[in-house]
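pasting for ref. prot 1 ->
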Amino acid sequence: MSRNISGPEIERLIQYLGRIPGLGPRSARRAALQLIKKKEQLLVPLAQAITDAVNNIVICNNCGNIDTRDPCTICQDPKRDVSFLCVIEEVGDLWALERAGVVSGTYHVLGGTLSPLDGRGPEELNIASLIERAKDDSVKEVLLALNATVEGQSTAHFISEQLEDCNVKISRLAHGVPVGGELDYLDEGTLSAAIKSRKQI
């Protein structure tokens, strides 16, 4: 039976850090210890950054990106090619593509994939708003840049069927994305090759 060896505030910090994906109990303890040891350099600025994030971060009503403004920075960028709409599962995928610098158009974040087992149907995702955006005359191509998982590919197939009545070219990622791979874990070269080698569905 494990015993608490520190005050409740420290235990609570460890518990919340442990809820972050990729951090287990041991990693959470190590992270908490580093934050506490470097209180002024790390813990205090982190607490302020979290407070600022809570108070200022919003979800873009246009594309689903997270930012401190709505519409987001990308949607407001006049240099973006509004004729090219890149559909991704999560904001992390958007960040990965932006790091690679391979998308000059705009984005649409679905908020996940279709998963009947998890109770996620079309209504739980940003699919209806995607169809509305695709109907706009300014949109010429919709790239379904979804992860090469079973859920990602079934979601891409569903969306391509929904877009059939829209006057747009529908494409998907091609070379470079391995089956079972997730965009956020791929390197910039792989992402660049996948974007440049996209194929129409």
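and prot 2 ->
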Amino acid sequence: MGRSARSLDASEPWSVGDAVATVLGLIARNPTLVGGSTAFLVALSFVSANALWYQPYAHSGAFFATRDFMRPGAPALPDETTILIERPEPAVVIEGDPMVKKVQQTLRDLNFYGGDVDGLYGPNTHDAIASYQTKMGLTVTGAVDDTLLDQLGTGSVTPVALPSPAPREVAATAAPASTPPVRDDRIAKVQVGLQEFGNEAIEADGLMGAKTEAAIREFQSLFGLPETGNADQAVYAKMKEIGLIK
């Protein structure tokens, strides 16, 4: 019996050669299908091997994870980018000394000081004080002391005890009385200086009146000082400078 007759007999077992011949026949009859399937299987094997063994980091897929994210010994994931926002520190405001402010303002009015009136004792303040002390024949220290303050008429650096207020009970029961005008020693000295300057009609009573204010404004205008009409430190210092106040 021929080979074709044996192939039709379903009861006869196939040999390896028959199986190979059948596969080769299929390939010969459908080369495009077999080639595409082979290419797909090869590509799938590369992708699977890359995902399962050769990826450096753990990752998850759409349907399954190829490895645990925290598997011991696995390389760590790259660190996330952290944005650090730094806020500037609030500016520190330094309060100046009120007495130094007075000295700076007076020296500025007298054209000895050209810096800021901030109450901070610095090189500019030191140099201005030294220049004024040199001009007035004082001991040149550049420091704010009692001698300088007396010369400028700004008071003293020695603390003065302030009077204690009366108890509320006593103050409430006391009868209201009009407060008499208080004599100001510096105004009295300025008035004496104005008398020496030619304003003989002014009385040195230590009280600020219209005549005293008008005479002070005239004095300030003549010597290029700010025309305030007040017996301030600049007026006092200028009068001492030119010898009107002893």
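Residues 98-144 form one domain.
The longest helix spans residues 31-54.
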